[in-house]
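SAMPLE LOG
Freezer: B-3
Tube label: C17
Construct: single chain, 293 aa
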Amino acid sequence: MRVSSGQVAKSQPFDDPLSEAEKAQGDTLMCAHTAASSELTLELLEASGPSDIPQQQIVTQVRAVTTLAPHTRLLHLQTPRSHRLRFLAGQSVTLGQTGPKGGDVHGQYPVASCPCDDRNLHFFIPRNSLDPFAQQLFDGHIKAGDAVTVWGPDGEFVLNEGHRPLVFAACDSGFAPIKSLIEHALALEAAPSLSLFWLATQSDGHFLANQCRAWSEALDQFEYELLSDTDIAVGAARMARAIRSDLFEIECDFYVAGPELFVRTLDAELRAAGIPAAQIFINVLTEPVGVLA
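STRUCTURE (predicted):
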């Protein structure tokens, strides 16, 4: 932020010192400073949409790799204190690392954590033999302390301005951007109610069911339903029926994320039920990328 009047004092060390020119115009790392005067006036840039956020390249450090389920890993990355990732809930980034045989492996994944903690970035990485970055992770070649480069953010699957009830629909690891949106919506306290429908196509697909249960127990405005079906199209149709039975009397905004077949099927079901296209926001998970020579 820029301090236009008042004084601040350094409260903790930080990695990258600002240039003399930045200091001269009042630019300050607020994460490492605290107010030192009774009145303080700050200027800051607030993003109103994806186009307001510049592309960034940040070398992060792996804090932890956690097994959530046999086919899902939680990758926890941490940025430098002075170079945090600016992103909106629901957006994706590209992760890259040098492979054990040379060459850079990379993959694009939605950020699963809230922008309110822009230093700690969480990703749910599914096992996929066609995804070289995921393969490297599951083979144990990405571990705590390693460097991983982040490029981004990308995508327009972000919260729409408004005060309608929010309905979130996810399939498998499509829960990642949905979780980010839910946490951001809860932080904003902008929605009168939030409903989550999560389809799993494999036995361990609800890898954060405990988190859903915790939200439901702690928040009166949150409810959820977990569905399972090995057939994505059948599962999406079942989800549409569940949504109709619970929520179609309410004017809602719908956020749908997952594989293309799931997203397209549920989108068609919602439109056929009379939901305006302007109230349906979709995110088709990208296909795995390759290895850079």
